[in-house]
Design brief:
This protein is an alpha/beta fold. The protein is built from 3 helices and 8 strands, in the order βαββαβαββββ. The mean pLDDT is about 95.
Length: about 140
């Protein structure tokens, strides 16, 4: 189960809406071994695509060095889907490389940049196996 604060969910949703029609992406870091998401880190989608996201390799290297210096790890890796449901695509599954991370997908297909309904779901992706998990949003 992913336990995540309302504030962090609001930041992911705002990022997804702001980047629509392109996919948004980012990381929420937390203390190593805690499974507790704390620090929101929006990233730039280097692909600048409505159907694919890619972290810039230099930005990602910088992020991992920073997390290492702070004794953090990626607890949540998130991105948005702009025209489809919040479920990992074949490409998402192929590129999932953090077996301990929660992969959060946010669908902006019904609202785009505007206020309106979004879909948010969380998954564990390990060795190509996708398992949906409950999301508990806490104050």
């Amino acid at each position: 189960m992913l336990r995540i604060s309302t504030d962090l969910v609001d930041q992911m949703v705002a990022h997804a809406r702001a980047d629509h029609p392109d996919e948004a992406c980012g990381v929420i870091a937390g203390p190593e071994g805690s499974d507790h998401p704390e620090r929101f880190i929006p990233m730039i989608n280097a692909a600048r695509s409505p159907t694919f996201y890619e972290f810039d390799s230099a930005d990602l290297l910088r992020l991992y060095r920073e997390m290492d210096d702070r004794d953090e790890e990626p607890v949540v890796i998130y991105h948005s889907h702009t025209a489809t449901e919040a479920y990992p695509s074949r490409t998402d599954i192929t590129y999932a490389s953090e077996p301990l991370a929660h992969y959060v997908l946010i669908s902006t297909r019904d609202c785009g940049n505007d206020e309106g309904p979004i879909e948010i779901r969380s998954f564990r992706i390990v060795d190509g196996e996708v398992t949906e998990e409950p999301v508990e949003i806490v104050a």
